[in-house]
Design brief:
It contains 18 helices and 12 strands. It is an alpha/beta fold.
């Protein structure tokens, strides 16, 4: 056998042995299976010993069993019941394991087992910011729940909302794709946007979710079915199933109705509200917040993606009673028409005006500098890096977490991996 063949054989043997590592879960079922068989053998030996008035082989049980057939019978019966139970569950576990991972490698199974042991994280928000965070978190835990705003009324989502009466699927679609186990062809298909004809401007994913809602008659069911199509790692939930509309009280007076109109009106929002004022939250979302180790708010458009979720009374109450750390991930750039010239403290104060006072434990702010050329590009559109005013933030009662969580290129935005690392460290603190 050549050296190459020996290496190939060794790798094959190692691959088979990897299935027995504790992290795959298979070893536990095998131990239960063998333990059950051992108990049955022990019962058989015990009965034979009692009938022959001898001693168990190797001294198991001791000479005190000799002649006491009643005691031996009781113990043998208990061993039979325990052995049969262990055999049943061990065999069932092995069979289910083999059926659930017919083509999986040991590495894949170990990865899935590791992710199942990850912290329970609830991410609240919407837009591309929330999707960015989820894209990083999914590599560390599968115990993820995204609670997504359904107040969008612009673009493809707005058209489907008006024409078909469905909740806007755009932000939910982004989160589904971000949490997809393999962001390959199907994920790209969900993000594909038609450029011509009657479907111009619509994304395939939006149409899929809307069509699924029509077929099932249930938007929540449509989202759930979409998670199966994309093999989503975690759960994506709309914040409410009610048809909510954003209302904004603008600085300088006046009111603007509709999410897409708020940033386009030329004035900055001071306070927003929902119509209806008290939509019901999904019970699954409330349960996830109650059981979470960490809850994140943002990143994303402050007034139109993050705050609408906490205006739902049941969500706000769940945040008041949760034992989880609540972390606000501050945006790295201001948003024209929504947070012009906002500092990090201004972002937090806006959250406080909408019922979050005293509920935020940490604020993650970016320390990565933006290059001069990229800063100039943003400056021309009216956006600037969000200034961090530590003293004001400390006065608001939050802990400020400085970290390099952004990266440049064509855009200056949060880096999924770096942001997830920082957030998960807070979950363990």
């Amino acid at each position: 056998m050549s050296g190459t063949q020996r290496i190939t054989v060794a790798r094959a043997r190692l691959s088979r042995l990897q299935w027995l590592l504790p992290s795959t879960g298979l070893l536990g079922w095998l131990v239960l299976l063998v333990g059950g068989a051992g108990l049955l053998l022990y019962a058989l030996l015990l009965v034979v010993t009692a009938l022959t008035a001898g001693e168990l082989p190797l001294g198991f049980g001791g000479p005190w069993f000799t002649g006491d057939k009643v005691v031996a019978g009781v113990i043998a019966a208990a061993a039979v019941v325990s052995g049969m139970t262990a055999l049943f569950y061990g065999l069932r576990g092995v069979v289910r394991f083999s059926r659930s991972t017919p083509a999986a490698t040991a590495d894949v199974v170990r990865t899935e087992a590791r992710l199942r042991r990850g912290p329970r994280v609830v991410a609240i928000g919407g837009g591309t910011g929330l999707a960015t965070l989820l894209r990083g978190l999914k590599h560390h835990t599968s115990n993820l729940t995204a609670i997504v705003t359904v107040a969008d009324d612009g673009g493809s989502s707005g058209l489907l909302r008006r024409d078909m009466g469905v909740l806007p699927p755009g932000d939910i679609r982004n989160c589904l794709v971000a949490l997809a186990d393999d962001e390959s062809l199907m994920s790209r298909l969900f993000q594909y946007r038609f450029a011509n004809g009657g479907l111009e401007g619509h994304s395939f994913g939006n149409l899929f979710v809307a069509a699924m809602a029509e077929v099932t008659g249930d938007f929540e069911r449509a989202v759930e079915e979409s998670t199966h199509v994309l093999k989503v790692r975690g759960t994506v939930l709309p914040a409410t199933l009610e048809n909510v509309v954003l209302r904004a009280e603008m600085r300088g007076g006046g009111e603007v109705i509709g999410e897409s109109c708020i940033t386009a009106c030329g004035l900055l929002p001071l306070r927003i509200s929902l119509a209806p004022e008290a939509p019901r939250a999904l019970p699954q979302a409330l349960a996830a917040i109650a059981e979470a180790d960490l809850v994140t708010l943002g990143p994303g458009s402050l007034f139109t993606s993050v705050i609408p979720n906490v205006l739902i009374p049941e969500v706000a109450q769940a945040l008041r009673t949760t034992r989880a750390r609540v972390v606000y991930v501050c945006n790295v750039m201001t948003q024209p028409g929504e947070t012009d010239a906002f500092s990090a403290a201004d972002h937090v104060e806006a959250l406080y005006r909408h019922g979050m006072a005293g509920l935020i434990d940490d604020v993650v702010v970016n320390d990565t500098p933006v290059s001069g050329s990229l800063a100039e590009v943003y400056e021309r559109s009216g956006a600037r890096p969000v200034a961090v005013d530590d003293d004001r933030l400390a006065a608001l009662g939050v802990r400020v977490v400085h970290a390099r969580v952004a990266s440049g290129g064509d855009f200056f935005r949060h880096d999924p991996g770096a942001l997830a690392d920082v957030v998960l460290r807070l979950a363990k603190s």
